Amino acid sequence: MDVRSRLAANLRRLRGEHGWSQEEYADRAGIHRTYVSDIERGARNPTISVVEKLAVPFAVTASDLLA
Fold this sequence. Notes:
This protein is mostly helical.
């Protein structure tokens, strides 16, 4: 599994565990909802700065999202 697929799977899993919609999660992360959707589908290759933003609402590290 490549890094984008791992990130996408981890985001979907964590978002589901928290019971958040893509829109709610995107608001919490400070990212547009369609960008979150694209990342979860593996259609985007986010920068490390974006990965850090994605990690904050889950209280995990960027490396946790990529593992």
